[in-house]
């Protein structure tokens, strides 16, 4: 875990918001196509909720994935995202120990 990379990824308000949404997907998203808690959240739902362009959301998700904060999985033409709650919890503990 690279704390600096995680902090950089979370330094953008929208990226932080996306991580919050993905940590509690049932609270923030609904889908008739899948169970968002189990299967993840379709990128299209994140785009719609954020009001950002597809390219911006894609870039933000890539940065979050590179930091290890989210998992992405391609299924057919769709990409689904889930929060990496284990890493997020480890990061919080590490940050508390550092400060």
From TrEMBL:
Domain of life from the UniProt record: Bacteria
InterPro entries named among the record's database cross-references: ArsR-like_HTH, HTH_ArsR_DNA-bd_dom, HTH_MetalResp_TranReg, WH-like_DNA-bd_sf, WH_DNA-bd_sf
UniProt-listed CDD domains: HTH_ARSR (cd00090)
Alphabetical list of Pfam families matching this protein: HTH_5
Swiss-Prot/TrEMBL keywords: DNA-binding, Transcription, Transcription regulation
Molecular function, one GO term: DNA binding
TM ranges: none
Keyword Cell membrane: no
Protein name, as recorded: Transcriptional regulator
């Amino acid at each position: 875990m690279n704390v600096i990379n995680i902090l950089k990824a979370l330094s953008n308000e929208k990226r932080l918001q996306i991580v919050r949404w993905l940590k509690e997907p049932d609270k923030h998203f609904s889908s008739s196509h899948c169970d968002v808690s189990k299967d993840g959240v379709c990128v299209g739902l994140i785009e719609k909720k954020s009001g950002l362009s597809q390219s911006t959301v894609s870039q933000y998700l890539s940065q979050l994935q590179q930091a290890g904060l989210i998992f992405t999985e391609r299924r057919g033409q769709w990409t689904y995202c889930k929060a990496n709650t284990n890493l997020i919890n480890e990061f919080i503990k590490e940050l508390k120990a550092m400060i």
